Amino acid sequence: MKLYCPNCKTEFPPLDVNVADNLAYCRRCGEAFAISKLLGHASTRREPLPDPVTNIPKGCWYHETMDGWTAGATTRSPLAFFIVPFMCVWSGGSLGGIYGSQILHGKFNLVMSLFGLPFLVGTIFIGGMAAMTIAGKVVLTVRGNELTVFTGVWGIGWRRKVTIEASSRLYSNRSNFHYPGSSPSNITIEGPKSIRFGSGLSFPRQIFITQLLRYKFNLPDQGI
Ligand SMILES: [Zn+2]
After folding, report:
1. pLDDT at residue 41 above 80?
2. Terminus of the chain with fewer CB atoms < 10 Å: N or C?
């Protein structure tokens, strides 16, 4: 059975249909639809977006602040149960063997040390990914039309600021990086300054953040 986006009539690829969560996600529109509704309604009329805050998925949060609001989502993932042991074995084995033995014997070996560099870089990369699956989060802080996006773990991470204007575009884009269980898209805002974020978030969490931004800033659906 095929499902089509009620907005743009694009067929949902199987990857973007999540039957368990009753959600189908349209990449072009950057919007999710309840599968039950798609099946029940022949009508393709757009309904106004409900306030996403009335239905916050697990792993997401929203608070009003003195001068705006803040919301976020965790990038926690069951993948941690795989990636952490993997990192211990892989990094422990390679780095322990290459650098550990040098430290142990108190002898520096240049060739071995250079040979180990890719493993060191790999460990930093996998370590970052492991940290994100254990305790990572994406946090939005909004003051007026100024949006700050933080991506990281325990306050260590990447903080970016953009201004959202009426002409800004909000949509999903294929992400260069994702892992099993996370959405294959990111959230893209194109404006005076553009930003891409939200890779590594699960499908429902990414949809929540996208819909919240769309709702709060009254941004229309945009094709890619
Ligand atoms: Zn669509």
Report:
1. no
2. N
